[in-house]
């Protein structure tokens, strides 16, 4: 199953992370735009891998395992680089931390539930959160190289999007935690 198209697309999303990181070290606006190109590629492959898996009946346990990991590695790496290069600063650090903490929480919860043979499906709101997050990160990635949209700079739009994504992140994180804790309670009740 590793070589089916959806899994190869997911693996390619993980594989471009070093390239995305490298774009931060290009000391011209070109680096910002190349970084955005890599992020757009990752976003498109994220959409296509799920679509292809469903249309071609190539859904697999490996794909269900790899897809959220690829998303978390990409988002986590990008947030760290944006923080390190001062493209996220001041109060905007808070939504970045909320997003990172939620990703760790949900990953840990998924790992635990997998150990007890229980899955936790991705919610529609969580998919919207990921989309908004990627768009906001794209604006932040372009940052100072981007145009103004009325009175707002590209970076300011990215920060607004990051706050919105963090708000949705809190909602989806709470939903996952509540569902996971409910499952833990059920398991504990069965032991009694």
What is Rg? 18 Å
Proportion of β residues? under 5%
Overall domain count: 1
Fraction of residues in helix: over 70%
Second CATH tier, the architecture: Up-down Bundle
CATH class categorisation: Mainly Alpha
H/E order of the elements?
Answer: HHHHHHEEH
CATH superfamily: CDP-alcohol phosphotransferase transmembrane (TM) domain
User: What is the topology, as strand order, of the major beta sheet?
Assistant: 1-2
SS elements, strand count: 2
Largest sheet: 2 strands, antiparallel
Q: Could you name the ranges where pLDDT drops below 50 across 5 or more consecutive residues?
A: none
What is the CATH topology assignment?
Answer: Four Helix Bundle (Hemerythrin (Met), subunit A)
Give the mean pLDDT.
Answer: 88
Tell me the distance between the termini: 39 Å
Structural class by sheet pairing and helices: mainly alpha
Question: What does this molecule look like?
Answer:
By secondary structure, the protein is mostly helical. It is 78% helix and 2% strand. It has one domain: CDP-alcohol phosphotransferase transmembrane (TM) domain (Four Helix Bundle (Hemerythrin (Met), subunit A), Up-down Bundle). It has a two-stranded antiparallel ribbon. The longest helix has 38 residues, at 154-191.
